[in-house]
Amino acid sequence: MDVEEAFRTVGEFGPYQKQAVAIIVLTQVYMAFQSMLIVLIGSTPEYHVEQQQVPSSSQELVQRVVFTEDFDSIVTEWFLVKQQAYKVNLAGSLFFAGLLVGNIVFGPLSDRIGRRPVYLSGLFLEVVFGYVTAFAPSYEVFAASRLLVGLMNGGISVVCFVLVQEYVGKSYWAMTGTLTSLCFAIGIALFAALGYLIRPWRNLTTAANSFGVLFFLLSVTLPESPRWLYCQGQTDRAEQVLRHMAMRNGNTVTNLMLQRVVAAKVSSPTKRQTGLLQLVVHPVLRIRTVVLMYVWYSCSLVYYGLTLGAGDSSGSRYMNVAMYGLVEVPAYPLCMYFINKHWAGRRKSMSSFLCLSGSACFCTVLIPDNTGSVLSVTLLALLGKLMVSAAFNIAYIYTSELYPTVIRNAGLGVCSMSCRVGGIMAPFVPSMRVLHSSVPFTVFSLSGLSAGCLGLMLPETLNGPTAETLDELTGPTGSRVLENKVRNQHLNFLFM
To answer: Which residue intervals define the domain Major facilitator superfamily (MFS) profile in the entry (predicted)?
Structure first.
């Protein structure tokens, strides 16, 4: 039997898989804490500058910064104001630069040496570097630690998403992928609550990072992905993991035996040439990768751009952070509803949400720029963010289904890389208002609409077979393998 048949035998989403998925999904809360950390600990309280005369022969005037707000952050500790204010943004940029590098490095690495060792080592190092952030004696150490935390955070975010997919049957991929994004959004809101309760920035950083210790200890018990073991030719180990899942699920399995043909496929040198190179040279993967990279780039550009444009900087900083996460929550039930409908599926749903986001941005251009229409512009901007959040979540699920298991992490890593590029560019779009007030929303509109149309070039994956190796994508052999998978799925459905 192949992997999908094996999962139907041991249980596609049994009690053991629910426990494993819950551990990884809840780890997203900790990762959200690290992603949003600089927003609170880098906040600049109200201050004024006093000029004092130094008693000396030169009668020098010295400027002294006086903070009038009772708030503790890296700004107040290292006086990062005026000419030094750029260092706060620099620390944030270093974190996102680490995310970019982590996406590139960790994806192919986990395809080569396995999901579990990369995930555990990355999470452990992120916790270690997180404590370096909390106890940094100087700004330079603080900035370096943020780069390293971002490197680990960006790397294991891809591996986490792949693991929750590969622990369960394909019919549950949409749900587990959505839960991952949902917990990250909830984590943003929980971080705002944690920041409200713990004000000193070092205490807040320590408390937020301590959650990582808990999740690391829970993650040590997780097994390796049976799908990865299978596609690597380690069939015996894959069967061992699947039998363990069956036992923990309460299922008695006596005849679980995977097809040994996979071992022969991966043993030749040509079949081992997986990684980033295959995304370029493989004819099917090359087209998919180009389209998906632009889709991820547009999702990130519109998402972060609208967040900056629609967010209200006034009021409580903690409430603003909480709303930043909670506004995404309604998007995920929409995803789970549409992507499993045969008349919508993954491709149409993702493209439709992107086009709706672009259309909402376009409508803001048509609204007159006056005080009476501010509320309408804000609502349309938030609607656009809601739609692009849904598209973003579908892009994760859809991308994991479009790439074979043997190269899935590499594909997600490259797409995440283009996502980070979009996030880096997003803050510069609002500055285009100097040309015309409608230019930023025009950029978001064109990005969403073009990505939505381009996404229609991709194949639908709903209820379709999942490719495990590159051979299953092209050629007569691959076609026969996929046809057999479809036939087996139909037979199993008839006799269930």
So the answer is: 20-463
pLDDT average per 10 residues of sequence, the chain (496 residues):
80 89 93 87 76 53 64 84 79 82 81 89 95 94 93 87 86 82 87 90 94 94 88 84 86 74 42 63 87 94 70 63 80 85 91 94 78 62 86 88 81 83 74 77 93 94 76 55 45 35
How many residues does this entry show for the chain? Answer: 496
How many Å apart are CA 440 and CA 367, to the nearest integer?
14
Q: What is the DSSP string of 457-470?
A: TSPP-TTPPPP-SG
C-alpha distances in Å from residue 335, one per residue of 13, 329, 348, 403, 461: 19, 11, 11, 20, 15
| Half-sphere exposure (Cβ direction) of 202: Cα atoms closer than 13 Å | 11
Look at residue 110 and give its three-state secondary structure: helix
Residues 6+ apart with CB under 8 A from 5: 488, 492
The CA distance from 242 to 393, in Å, is 28
Which one-letter DSSP state was computed for residue 62? E
Give me the helix-helix angle, 475-495 and 3-10, nearest 10°: 20
Q: Is the dihedral angle over the CA atoms 355, 357, 358, 364 positive or is it negative?
A: positive
Q: For residue 118, count CB atoms less than 10 angstroms from its CB and return exposed for 0-12, middle for 13-18, buried for 19 or more.
A: buried
What is the residue whose two structure tokens read 């996102």?
96
Phi, psi of 50 (to 5 degrees): -105, 140
pTM, full prediction: 0.75
DSSP designation for 209 = H
Query: Tokens 């000193």 sit at which residue?
Result: 200
Q: Tell me how far apart the alpha carbons of residues 171 and 88 are, in angstroms, rounded to a whole number.
A: 44
Rounded CA gap, 317 and 52, in Å?
A: 32
- Which of 327, 304, 303 has the alpha carbon at shortest distance from 391? 303
- Residues contacting residue 122 through CB under 8 Å, at least 6 positions apart: 102, 106, 152, 155, 156, 159
Longest pairwise C-alpha distance within the chain: 97
In this structure, what DSSP letter does residue 339 have? T
Q: 286-323 burial by CB neighbour count: b if 16+ within 10 A, else e?
A: eebbebbbbbbbbbbbbbbbbbebbbeeeeebbeebbb
Read off the DSSP letter of residue 224: P
User: Tokens standing for 16?
Assistant: 């053991």
Exposure string over 348-384, b if 16+ CB within 10 A, otherwise e: bbbbbbbbbbbbbbbbbbeeeeeeeeeeebeebbbbb
The whole-angstrom separation of Cα 402 and Cα 462 is 11
Q: Which phi and psi (to 5°) does residue 471 adopt?
A: -65, -25
Could you give the CA distance from residue 74 to residue 72 in angstroms, rounded to a whole number?
7
Three-state DSSP at 167 gives coil
